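Lecture 7 notes: from sequence to structure.

We start with a single chain of 285 residues. Read the sequence below before looking at the structure.
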Amino acid sequence: MTALRRGMLLLAAAAAACSPGRTPYVARVREIHGVLVSVAAWGRDSLRLDHAVAAALDSAAEVETMLASLGERAGTVVVSHGLAQLVFRAAELARASGGAFDPTSKSFRSLSVDTARHTLTIPRGLHLELGELGRGSVLDHALAALHGAADSAVITSGGQYLIHADWSGARVVGIVDPDHTLVPLVRLTIPAGTWAVSTMSVAEARDELLDPRSGKPATRTRVVATMAPTAADAGGWSAAFYVLGCDSSLVLAPRVHTSVVCVDDDVRWSSDLDGRVTRDTMRER
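Now the structure, written as tokens:
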């Protein structure tokens, strides 16, 4: 099963859980810089909702284009306030993870961010790429474009899901085993409100995921899924936790206010997810 089909399978499960009866909805998919971004949204005014979904995909494309241009810059450059804040966020996550997440792939401490002047100082030869944190930010901006038009929404890109619902009810995301993709390994029940889930595995990664600290492949973990209020945080920490391995991730997650499900030889999760994670019964038959 391709990454797209896995993503659509899990998106369908989450979308079905988010649909509040017969409320009108609009769903669209667009390829943006080689990545499929899906937006499904529910609201009372179908015409207004249709325009909002189109705006959400336009916003996603704009942010993706902005992020793609980062790697082409060097020296001290002036950027938007939002981009400066996002790069600062990436640098902070790199520090908090001890370099397990690194937007420069090797030397995040040499990157300088001035959020007051909106400048980045990028040493020559250093490639800046925000990875899963940046891709999560694309989803966050898409959701912002739906504000006022959508009561509920599910936005997805690859292994990242951003779910918003103004009504109570079950929202479930399946987390697949890369070796057995037809049936979820576990199911994660999402709380009410706005939450992002980011999954990281060999199957979801575009390329082999390397440990930035050593330059060698990260092999401690089979699957990681993180849950956070924003897709940027969920995405960045999913990459960091995948590199760190389950033991370190389960210790670190509560300190950085992020929930995690981690799979190596067993399935484990942070204590705040007790009662929200269930093993799939079909796998046990």
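The longest strand covers residues 180-190. Keep this in mind for problem set 3.
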